[in-house]
Fold each of these.
Amino acid sequence: MAKVIMIQGTMSGAGKSLLVAGLCRILKEDGLRAAPFKSQNMALNSYITAEGLEMGRAQVVQAEAAGTEPSVLMNPVLLKPTTDTGSQVIVNGKVLGNMSAREYFSYKKELVPVILESYRKLADQYDVIVVEGAGSPAEINLKENDIVNMGLARMLDAPVLLAGDIDRGGVFAQLYGTAALLEEEERSRIKGLIINKFRGDKTILDPGIAMLEEKTRIPVVGVVPMMQVDIEEEDSISERLRDGGEKGKPGLLDIAVIRLPKISNYTDLAPLESRAGVSVRYVSGVRQLKEPDLILLPGSKNTMEDLRWLRMSGLEASILKLAEKGVPVFGICGGYQMMGEEIADPHGVEAGGSMRGMGLLPVRTIFGRSKVTTQAKGRMEELTGPWAALSGRTYEGYEIHMGDTEVDTDRGYVQILARKEDRILGICRGHAAGTYIHGIFDSREISGAILEKLAAAKGIALEDLGEGMDFKTYKEDQYRLLAEGLRASLDMEAVYRIIGEGL
């Protein structure tokens, strides 16, 4: 059986996901077979495995850092919020159903056998499992039947490293208060404390660290700096989604991403953000939209609700006016569905009934009872007109969507972007295009062709936008930088001792 170590945090956003990814990469570099594990993840960013199973993207990132294939075993329970009080519950990669928060709280103990079975299967295959908690173990209202923090640590007999976020202030109170609210048996599992996201001179912290260690009787095993690494974050706390469209880095090309309330898989846009000369802004109001070079409509967990928001906010009208002026609009998944003529929900999967779409593309989407979850790989069709640069370009990604989209090829000049057997995966008409393929911009051929066309329209060269590194190579460089930063700031001898000794 594999050795185990668990990273918990004093709050959401304390940096657990990156710490797990960094430890996975360090273990890989040191010749160990490592795998991440998060029993329950709540996120709208998800991924489809080769088997067609759905899991959280954070564990995909961690698996990539570990140099191993993502598996649904690494995230057996995924919650995808559909409303403020309910989520779609996905177990072992398949939809179990929608539950309110209260229903799930009562049900979650039934998932313990599933979680333990997934963990055992991983432990049979790897040397070390790096487990990630969720939120804080001191959320005392949620401790009953806990399956993701100290309850899981107890089930796995796992030693814990507790991380606090100094960037948001009060890190000593975070760490001490969290430990103080735990029961003695739980507190005894914490083998080390981590102060995360530090900026400045570490020696200034020394008196506080000494007092913290004295009061908690737990050693501080590292002060991790605020690292400038470009690695995917959890969707609910991503800083890039908070800039309001005004703080994005200036660039020669201006891309506006509509910041939908239920935005999902915004990581589709990460390859575009990696180019120095490209500004990717997340906008949620008409005044922020301005007149970009490209408008992107991303995925949504609740397409009809987000379309209603788009309409009421005035953004739909502004997008349509810009589209009439020739500004290209590109939709992915839910964004693609919104761009059509109609969205119908006969089974009440979302809001029920039907809604008029934006009318940019001659498609009609009908939500079914089952979800399409599959990987997609191929070449774009031969195209003419504004999207001709995509002709024959290779793509590789995945689909996650409810419903089927019917294309009316008799209405206007319509071209098929991509197909999978008898299913159309995307179309274009004029300056509007949409597709179901998540991860489409990961292809250097696809993203490069679009950026080159946008650059040419502004009289600049593609080279002016910065080096177009292969995105997989770019991510590998970021994992390496993350590992270097953690090695320099963590007491890795202590970490290995904790892994080796267990409890």
Amino acid sequence: MTAPRYIPGMPGAILLICDHASNAVPPDIDLGIAPDMFGKHIAIDLGSAALTEALAEALDAPAILASASRLVIDLNRPVDSPGLIPLVSDGHPIPGNVDADRADRIARLYVPYHEAIASAIAVQRPVLLAAIHSFTPQLESVGGPLRPWEIGILSNNDRRAAEIALSLLTAQGLVTGDNEPYSGRLLNATLDRHGEANGIASLSIEIRNDLIADAGDVARWAMILAPILAEIRNRLASNGGLAT
């Protein structure tokens, strides 16, 4: 339960990461929420694990997938972030987190996940880190506007991979957000730590979760994204890490 899931693949090219792949909760933790909450986007990035698996197969790329729900601990947050162990998510209170043993959850779940990524990078030195996420079409708590994007590309200061991806996706006529539906300048902790800090090009791919709701949808997006990720890898490798 504490160890992330690792999918082996060809080293030295692309490393896939899925921070919110699981809605599992350790048996000794009670979040105090209704069972149906675990099928919502607050507990898991719906469809992200299946898409990561499909891309790993298509690209023969290694992948690291989280083993616990983001409601237990959000692995895509800095360790000192107030949102690391959420008390409320999209308007839903998480009462079991009020008195959570923060140090225990960090040691059991956060540290093994990030150590696994760091170890894979040290051994493989990938050209590209690609984090796979999904987003809900509309937030529940604010009854906000529908999110029109089919896919969003998130990045922080390192825009090398993002610029290539945005060009290739928009060329296919896809409704593509640049740091939408939220900004990678604010929510990019995993890639900031393992990508930018190591000088490795990276991007976060956000798919609207109603578009990867079944196996056919996942297969379609894998067919779209695998060649794009391969092209990004090839351009970065042939230009010494510089986007063209």
